[in-house]
């Protein structure tokens, strides 16, 4: 089975001297069928993520009604998803399907995985901001417009990108014991940076996502209670409008909750993958399949958010159509 998945031309683990020039910088590390599989799957993910998140970004740009504080966060999250498909996904694929001195030496390996780690941290930061936004909307509906403004949302987004960079550089904070250590394969190496990296992914990310899920349960209970209370007191048009706004709150919160749920489902397997690498004995081909499945699911998450917005929000859905029509008109030369 190993012959059908992994190219066995290169050693799994070992040390190499600076003068050793017998190993090429890059070489194919998987069989041709698996390379074809990678190419097809990741091209589909790339197209879906790039097109979908471009629709989100351009919808925010051309539709004034979408430029609300919550959607500032959604806009920035779409930018992170596009960066994931343009930078993190290609670098991870290179590290998975190629081998050689520029890929498997400890000093080089970290460069291929840090974009995914950084952008995952950015996405989690946005999910935290969206949860805080929904919590304020549920608990302080009258003060919400003055507490959560577009300016504050933009500042929060900027700080999120900056703070996430701290977690993104974790693999670079320590020197490598031996920069010419060959680390491809199933044998785990335990440098300080890798240990910190794994600890953050295995324990911190699931803990944060679990707390966010608890917050969303609390938000839904508060919003539902307000809707039920207001429905019992509807005697005027103003109260009807208040009840309508509460229903809109539940709908918006449900949409952002689905985004959180999709992220959790897609990225938790990556946490399990690191746990397996550290604590479970597996063969090379078994680990390769686990790593591949977890990474495909994680990167596939960037395709889901635009679909969720279109499914849950009619304004997003109609604006998507306007964006597509404008693109088609520009390509054909017709007037909009």
Automatic annotation (TrEMBL):
Transmembrane segments: 25-51, 72-91, 111-132, 153-173, 199-221
Localization (cell): Cell membrane
Gene Ontology CC annotations of this record: plasma membrane
SUPFAM superfamilies named among the record's database cross-references: Family A G protein-coupled receptor-like
Key words of the record: Cell membrane, G-protein coupled receptor, Membrane, Receptor, Transducer, Transmembrane, Transmembrane helix
Ranges for domain G-protein coupled receptors family 1 profile: 52-309
Signal peptide interval: none
InterPro entries reported in the protein's UniProt record: GPCR_Rhodpsn (IPR000276), GPCR_Rhodpsn_7TM (IPR017452), TAAR (IPR050569)
Entry GO MF terms: G protein-coupled receptor activity
Membrane topology, from the record: Multi-pass membrane protein
Top-level taxon: Eukaryota
Pfam families referenced in this protein's UniProt entry, alphabetically: 7tm_1
Protein name, per record: Adenosine receptor A2b
């Amino acid at each position: 089975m190993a012959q059908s998945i992994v190219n066995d031309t290169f050693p799994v683990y070992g040390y190499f001297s600076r003068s050793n020039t017998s190993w090429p910088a890059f070489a194919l590390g998987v069989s041709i069928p698996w390379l074809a599989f990678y190419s097809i799957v990741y091209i589909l993910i790339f197209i879906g993520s790039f097109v979908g998140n471009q629709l989100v970004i351009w919808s925010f740009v051309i539709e004034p009604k979408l430029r609300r504080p919550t959607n500032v966060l959604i806009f920035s999250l779409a930018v992170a998803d596009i960066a994931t498909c343009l930078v993190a996904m290609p670098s991870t694929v290179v590290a998975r399907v190629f081998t050689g001195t520029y890929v498997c030496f400890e000093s080089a390996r970290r460069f291929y995985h840090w974009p995914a780690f950084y952008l995952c941290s950015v996405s989690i930061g946005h999910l935290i901001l969206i949860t805080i936004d929904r919590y304020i909307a549920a608990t302080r509906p009258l003060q919400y417009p003055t507490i959560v403004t577009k300016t504050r949302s933009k500042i929060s987004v900027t700080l999120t990108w900056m703070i996430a960079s701290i977690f993104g550089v974790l693999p670079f904070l320590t020197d490598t014991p031996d920069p010419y250590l060959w680390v491809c394969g199933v044998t785990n190496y335990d440098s300080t940076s890798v240990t910190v990296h794994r600890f953050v992914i295995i324990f911190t990310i699931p803990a944060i996502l679990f707390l966010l899920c608890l917050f969303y349960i609390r938000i839904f209970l508060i919003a539902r209670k307000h809707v039920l209370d207001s429905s019992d007191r509807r005697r005027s048009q103003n109260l009807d409008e208040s009840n309508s706004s509460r229903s809109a709150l539940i709908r918006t919160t449900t949409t952002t909750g689905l985004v959180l749920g999709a992220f959790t489902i897609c990225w938790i397997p990556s946490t399990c993958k690191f746990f397996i690498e550290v604590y479970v004995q597996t063969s090379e081909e078994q680990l390769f399949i686990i790593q591949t499945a977890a990474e495909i699911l994680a990167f596939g998450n960037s395709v889901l958010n635009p679909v969720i917005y279109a499914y849950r929000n009619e304004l997003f859905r109609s604006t998507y159509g306007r964006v597509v029509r404008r693109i088609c008109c520009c390509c054909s030369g017709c007037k909009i």
